[in-house]
Write a structure and sequence with these properties.
Elements (H helix, E strand, L loop, with lengths): L6 E4 L1 H5 L4 H12 L4 H15 L5 H9 L8 H5 L1 H9 L5 H12 L3 E9 H11 L3 E5 L1 E3 L5 E5 L8 H13 L7 E4 L5 H6 L2 E5 L3 H10 L3 E2 L3
Parallel strand pairs: 1-2, 1-6, 2-3, 6-7, 7-8
Antiparallel strand pairs: 4-5
Helix pairs in contact: 3-4, 6-8
């Protein structure tokens, strides 16, 4: 059997990206006139409860996906590279990017693992040379348009462990010696799965857990 490989798993929002891509996306869609006022209010209210640990990451992700129900997303797909270059790339975290390059020099597998959508992330993966993308995919209905639901299981929370374990089996990854980077306590299952968890600009709950476990903490700069 070939020697096991070490991987570095990177969350995207508020980790590899120093901001929340949903906030950036909502501003973009609002400018285009593609999103309703009431849908934005729904996101804002749920985000507040999410930050207070009263609403799960999975529930808010599922709510956000309703935006795509029965939409023709071909234009979003065509514009994904431009959207990345103009809206996302300026907010890539220099701190976490340096860590990515450290892992690359060591020959580690670079894996982006996130609840965000594939079409938005493929330009990121291409630009920064990730080896694998584990993310949320839109379920497509018989009419060829999104149903507003994800392909199950949605890549968030405990389900990230499912995807990480599947990747480990397929790519012969040594999870005990691998790394994971995240900003939010909803990713605790993933952080606990690897031998080297690293928290990035963590929220209150994760910062407290990191201190208790002596996990390294990175801050965006």
């Amino acid at each position: 059997m070939s020697e096991k490989r070490i991987a570095a798993f990177f969350d995207f929002d508020n980790t590899f990206l120093a901001r929340d891509s949903a906030v950036i996306g909502i501003k973009y869609l609002l400018k285009r006139g593609d999103i309703s006022f009431w849908f934005i209010i729904g996101i804002i209210v749920r985000s507040i409860f999410f930050k207070l640990n009263l609403y799960s990451a999975e529930r808010i992700s599922r709510y956000a996906l309703r935006f795509y129900k029965n939409r023709d997303i071909s234009e979003y797909l065509r514009q994904s590279e431009i959207y990345y270059q103009e809206m996302l790339k300026p907010h890539i975290s220099p701190t976490v990017r340096e860590k990515l390059e450290e892992h690359r020099r060591k020959g580690h597998l670079l894996i982006l693992i996130t609840a965000s959508l594939r079409y938005m992330l493929e330009p990121v993966v291409k630009d920064y040379g990730f080896d694998l993308l584990l993310c949320t995919d839109l379920e497509i209905g018989e009419n060829g348009r999104p149903t507003g639901r994800p392909v199950e299981p949605i890549c968030v929370g405990e389900n990230k462990v499912y995807y990480a374990r599947k990747a480990a089996e397929e790519l012969n990854i040594d999870l005990e010696n691998s790394f994971a980077y995240s900003d939010h306590h909803s990713d605790l299952p993933l952080l606990k799965l690897v031998g080297n968890p690293v928290v990035v600009n963590p929220n209150f709950f994760l910062r407290r857990i990191a201190a208790k476990n002596n996990w390294p903490v990175l801050e965006h700069f």
